[in-house]
Amino acid sequence: MSDLLSVTPSGLYCEAGGFYIDPWRPVERAVVTHAHSDHARPGSKRYLCSSACAPFVRLRCGEESAISCLEFGERRTINGVTLSLHPAGHILGSAQVRVEHQGEVWVVTGDYKTEPDPTVEPFELVRCHTLITECTFGLPVYRWPEALAEFERINAWWAANQSAGRTSVLMGYSLGKAQRLLAGVDAGLGPIFAHGAVLGPTQAYRDQGIRLPPVRPVSEAPLDVDWPRALVVAPPGAEATPWMRRFRESATAFASGWMAVRGIKRRRGVERGFVISDHVDWPALMEVVAATGASRVLTTHGYSAVVAKHLSERGLDSSPLETQFRGEAEEEGA
Ligand SMILES: [Zn+2]
Ligand SMILES: [Zn+2]
C-alpha cells in the first residue's frame, strides 16, 4: 500500500484525499497549518485552515483567496479521508493536521511548541501511527530557558536602556513572535511603539480577543516623543535600515530560538539576544514524538537528518522527509 501522505514536486500530498498540506507551489486544494511564508503561499485555488488562522492567510495570500475553515477538532471527510485540525501552539490559529484513512492515522505537526503562551491556543497532543514533525531546533544544544524568566530579562534590559538614554528596539518576527513579545513585556515601564509590519498582525490578534497592551505606530509618533523611554517592537532586519535613525541612540535585541547559540547572535549583528522561541526545543520534541505513540516518524524543516538518526537509534522507523531545500534563515517565527 502506498503512503497516505507523500512528497511531490508541489509539496506534501494526500493522494487518497486529493489535497496538499502547506504546498510550495499553487495547487487546487491547499490545507495550511499556519500563515508563515514557508507554509502559506499565495496562488492556490482553495485553502483550508483553522478559523483562527484565516485572517492571517488572507493577509499573506490575498483578500480574494478562497478559504474554508475548520474549527479545531472538527472533522471533514474528503474523498473518504477524514481530516481535522488541532492546535499547534506555534502562533495564533496554527494547526497540526490529522489525516485518517482506513484506520491509519497520520499527523503533520507544522511548526509547534508545547510551552505555555497566552497569545495562542495550547498545543494538543494527537496520537497517531505516523508523525511528520518539524525539526527547526532539532539539536540537543537547543534547550529553552523559562519564558517568564526571559521576559524578566527583557524588562530589565528595557529599564537599563531608559537609564542610559537609549531607545530599546526589540526585534522579532512580525506575525506571532511580535505579539507574544507585546503580551509578555511589562507595559508599565513606558510607551510601546511598533514598526508598520507588526501592526496588521497585532490588530488581527486583538480582533480575536487576545489581550495586548496599547501599541502606537512609530510613523505616528509625536515630534517631541521621548524615545529613550519607549520600547519599539520591529521585525528582524529593521536594525540595518535608515528607519532606525529617528531613534538616535538605540539598543537592539533579537528574540528568537537562534539566540541560544552565541555565533548566530554575532552574525545577526544585534547587541542582545533573548531566547524566546515558538518552536519546540530538543527535549520537548523528544517528549512529543514519544507521547504521540507513533511507530514511524518522518522529519522535516531543519535538522531532519539528525533527529531521524537519533530516533532510529532508539528503535523507531524514522527518516527525513525529502523536501524542497530551505535554509535556516528562511524559517520565520523561529
Ligand atoms: Zn511558523
Ligand atoms: Zn516554519
Outline the fold blueprint.
Blueprint lengths: L5 E3 L2 E4 L4 E3 L7 E3 L14 E5 L3 H8 L5 E4 L4 E4 L2 E7 L7 E7 L2 E5 L21 E6 L11 H18 L2 E5 L5 H8 L7 E3 L1 H12 L8 E2 L13 E4 L15 E6 L6 H7 L3 E3 L7 H11 L3 E7 L1 H10 L3 E4 L14
Parallel strand pairs: 3-4, 4-5, 5-6, 10-11, 11-18, 12-15, 12-16, 13-14, 13-15, 16-17, 18-19
Antiparallel strand pairs: 1-2, 2-3, 7-8, 8-9, 9-10
The protein binds zinc ion (2 copies).
The site of one zinc ion has 6 residues, from loops.
How would you sum up this structure in a few lines?
It contains seven helices and 19 strands.
Which bin fits the share of residues in helices? 10-25%
CATH-level-4 superfamily name of the largest domain: Ribonuclease Z/Hydroxyacylglutathione hydrolase-like
Strand count, sense and closure of the main sheet?
Answer: 7 strands, mixed
Ligands bound to this protein structure: zinc ion
| Radius of gyration, whole Å | 20 Å
Number of strands: 19
Low-confidence stretches: none
Quaternary state of the chains: single chain
Strand content: 25-35%
Q: Class by helix and strand content?
A: alpha/beta
Q: Please write the CATH class name of the largest domain.
A: Alpha Beta
Mean pLDDT: 94
Report how far the terminal alpha carbons are from each other: 36 Å
Q: Count the domains.
A: 2
Can you tell me the CATH topology of the largest domain?
Answer: Metallo-beta-lactamase, Chain A
Order of helices and strands: EEEEEHEEEEEEHEHEHEEEHEHEHE
Shape: globular
DSSP helix count?
7
Judging by the overall fold, what is the CATH architecture of the largest domain? 4-Layer Sandwich
**For the largest beta sheet, what order do the strands appear in spatially?**
7-8-9-10-11-18-19
